[in-house]
Design brief:
This protein is an all-alpha fold. It has a single domain, classed as ABC transporter involved in vitamin B12 uptake, BtuC (Orthogonal Bundle). It contains 13 helices and two strands. It starts with a helix and ends with a helix.
Length: 312
């Protein structure tokens, strides 16, 4: 009974901090804080999406960066065609991710364990090399966006603050959606499938259908993150969907706590902040980050969320 109000308090504190950050940046006269925070929010959305299937469905996907790339290239391709509206960019990204996730998920979910991991990785790499081959969009070098997405025909998102609050609104909305999904009957069946798929079949549920649906929803959420990343960087390249990026997303989820949606958001936030701070100290910052990650995981199997619960 104590965990629920504690988690609600933690969520309120974290999202309030995100909400007031631009004002803190103004007080410190440091506009870069808003830029890096927008990047953090985009990755938090992607980590949230991955945790939906990893933490609740037990599906370890090593190809989730593919959906980041689909979202990012939706912005680039439509913008090149003269379509700059953010709503259309999001719709195209979600549609593209849904199609890709349905096809790849229907195949991948017929396996399990290490085979599932490798197949998701293989599909992501196929997507990576597909976009590398698109010479019209810079191939391996990528393409620079002429402008950010527009809202109702207006270049509102050219303002870093407006882009930040748009990304924040999407994060908050998707977090609430993910919470609703995990607390619903669908979410309980998905969790039951993770624990004992044989028993779920015995009582009349089809694990494959629930896992595939969750896989598609997760891919669509990650594509939204890709749209935000493309706008934040004004640049799109196949590197968005490289397997290293998928590994980073898994690390963020593990760092924050698998099976804890707020932990996924916190994990992405802390991981990227550590990356920024440690890179200032030394060019060998990945080594220090690895040591910190190992210490957190050894001390708490639930990552940062587990450490937080011990302190409250």
């Amino acid at each position: 009974m104590r965990i629920i109000p504690t988690r609600a308090w933690a969520a309120t504190a974290l999202f309030t901090a995100f909400a007031i950050l631009p004002f803190l940046a103004d007080a410190l006269d440091d506009s870069y804080l808003v830029v890096i925070a927008t990047r953090i929010i985009a990755y938090a959305i992607a980590a949230l999406a991955l945790d939906l299937i990893l933490g609740y469905g037990g599906l370890v996907s090593f190809g989730h960066a593919a959906y980041l790339g689909i979202g990012a290239y939706s912005v680039a391709i439509l913008s090149r065609a003269g379509i700059t509206d953010l709503g259309l960019h999001l719709a195209a990204a979600i549609a593209g991710a849904a199609i890709f996730a349905t096809i790849t998920g229907a195949i991948s979910l017929r396996t399990k364990g290490i085979y599932f991991i490798m197949i998701t990785l293989a599909f992501a790499q196929m997507g990576y090399f597909f976009f590398v081959s698109l010479s019209a969009y810079g191939g391996d070098d990528g393409v620079t966006l002429a402008q950010r997405s527009t809202l109702f025909g207006q270049p509102v998102l050219e303002s870093d603050r407006a882009l930040y609050y748009t990304a924040f609104a999407l994060l908050l909305g998707l977090y609430l959606l993910a919470v609703a999904i995990t607390r619903s009957r669908f979410g309980r069946v998905l969790t039951g499938t993770r624990e004992n798929p044989v028993r779920m079949r015995a009582i009349g549920f089809s694990p494959f259908r629930y896992q595939l649906t969750a896989f598609v929803i997760s891919g669509c959420m990650a594509a939204v993150a890709g749209v935000m990343l493309a706008n934040q960087t004004n640049y799109v390249s196949p590197a968005f969907m490289d397997w290293h990026r998928s590994g980073e997303l898994v690390v963020m989820v593990v760092f924050g706590g698998v099976g804890n949606l707020l932990g996924a958001v916190a994990g992405a936030t802390v991981a990227l902040l550590l990356e920024e701070w440690l890179s200032i100290l030394t060019e060998h910052w990945p080594l220090l980050f690895g040591v910190i990650l190992v210490m957190v995981v050894l001390y708490s199997r639930d990552g940062l969320s587990g450490l937080f619960r011990r302190r409250t």
